[in-house]
Amino acid sequence: MSHLNIEIKAKCVQPERVRNLLSARSADFKGIDHQVDTYFKVRNGRLKLREGRIERALIYYDRENTEGPKRSNVILYQPGFDPELKEILTESMGVLAVVDKQREIYFIGNVKFHIDEVNGLGSFVEIEAIDSAGTMGEKKLREQCAGYMDLFEIRKGDLISCSYSDMILNLKN
């Protein structure tokens, strides 16, 4: 399934405040998921296998590393649990990085929110305005993302331009 996201990632110094704001807006809390994302070496974009209890998927996405709301073209495949898939991907492409995190997952309509605690990196909040049907358009998604950034009082200096995998790799260098 292919879709368009407009998304941000930011440092989150007050996760409880974000939780309270989401709760006050009757966000649909999906749960807390321990997720291990294995990123594979690819020529273009990013390919990761997400292993979690709530979310399990093979995800390809192409997104620029820029601050602020950014466009992400996503292809999502949700296989059943099959450890051989990870073995095939690892043997054929090689592992680039592994990201281990605890993720709280919330939804308000088409907007998905994550409060993440990433091993070795700290606390983050993500906002993903999602157009899975191709009917909303990029402008509307950008407006939604900006509105929630204002609500959460996300400052420009808190925005993260790259993926968790890039951050993990930068720690190693």
From TrEMBL:
What PROSITE patterns is this protein classified in? CYTH
| SMART domains linked to this entry | CYTH
Report the superkingdom from the record. Bacteria
Q: Where is the CYTH domain?
A: 3-170
Q: Which SUPFAM superfamilies match?
A: CYTH-like phosphatases (SSF55154)
Question: Looking at the Swiss-Prot or TrEMBL record, what is one Pfam family this protein matches?
Answer: CYTH
What InterPro entries does the record point to?
Answer: Adenylyl_cyclase_CyaB, CYTH-like_dom_sf, CYTH_domain
Query: Which protein, by its recorded name, is this?
Result: Adenylate cyclase
